[in-house]
Specification:
The protein is of the alpha/beta class and 467 residues long. It is 32% helix and 25% strand.
Length: 467
Amino acid sequence: MKYDVVVIGSGPGGYIAAVRCAQLNMKVAIIEKYPTLGGTCLNVGCIPSKALLDSSEHYHNASKHFKAHGIQVGKLGIDFEQMIQRKRDVVNVTCQGISFLMKKNKIDVYQGMGSFVSAKQIAVTDAEGKQTLLDTDKTIIATGSKPTQLPFIPMDKKRIITSTEALELKEIPKHLIVIGGGIIGMEIGSVYGRLGSKVTVIEYLDGIIPSMDGSLGKELQRILKKQLNFQFNLKHKVTGASVSGEVVTVKAENAKGETVEFEGDYCLLAIGRSPYTQGLALEKAGLSADSRGKIVTDKHLQTSVEGIYAIGDVAYGAMLAHKAEEEGVFVAEHIAGQKPHINYNLIPSVVYTWPEAAGVGYTEEQLQKENIAYKRGEFPFRALGRARASTDIDGFVKILADEKTDEILGAHIIGARAADLISEAVVAMEYRASAEDISRMSHAHPTYSEAFKEACLAATANRALNM
């Protein structure tokens, strides 16, 4: 079979790239080694984790907050098996949606392992070992990533688990030890913390969600400690872990160099993700990955071999589904001769705990490091009528604006619906709006978005109207 474009991997980057190429009148094939389309995000990542986060939040609200609203629910219980099944149903429907998009756009789907035979030919080996050869003018590598492991942590995937296994547990942990204070650890820790698990976090650095603005990490740590009784152990270096029956023991060194031990019934290793390029036979196409598994590309996301592109988690940059999607569109349009653009500084990052945390643009630490003069405006959710009405008073909006021009350089939010609110910042910053521009735009009352306007007022001339 001969194609204009072959996409290897059907995650958010891959399937979006395939759809956009098809829209641009290219003959497209997509290769997926797993039985369902959608990649990590749809099958064992973003979508299933959000389904469990939503279910656990309903339970948490019923057990902790309904009484204040005058709602009596009687004796509460958890049908954990049904909770997991609902998650599976959400995943199934979402993956079926991707299959529908492939049919709608006349994209040929090949189930099996894709590997290069040469720069212009790809072999697809299915589960029975049958091989199909595809000739192609262009190839887009979108094979995503897998959970990062530590060589001294024995992953049995039963008691010492990754995020993948955490989404399919048979029981609610009594004590979940989370190695890593990043986004994945905080989200999955929140799921089980809401359902009654004791959660202990062990983090090597001096703060959680270290990829985001430092103020968000400090506030999220305070909230999770208060809300779910999370126990945080920062500046701790994990040195080993072992399993004995139903007990997991994790050893670490604290900031003083002392050896400390933690015991629980489950341990989640959540120290990040690594690019997945195994089995691609990159060398046969004249390519290689770096020591971290990343594939070097130029500004058009083309590799060192003409006609072969890499996007998403296997390319450089943040490992985010929406970043991969943007790159999928970018490459498709570049192949078609258009001149697309991605502003990587304006790709937002989100933590789907409750409250949510989200940020885009420069962090305060980055501005200080680069000696960029800035103004800061902050507005707390507790001063917002909408937040008080819903009892979601934790958190704040922080706006960082250029000291001279007032252009918004960064926006960082922790609070109710932060994942949605951050889009206002992205739009504003794409159009290079000033803090005053936003502060003079009408925001519906009462809404959470008013906090964004008030923070911009605070940044403009320290004149927030409601505090």
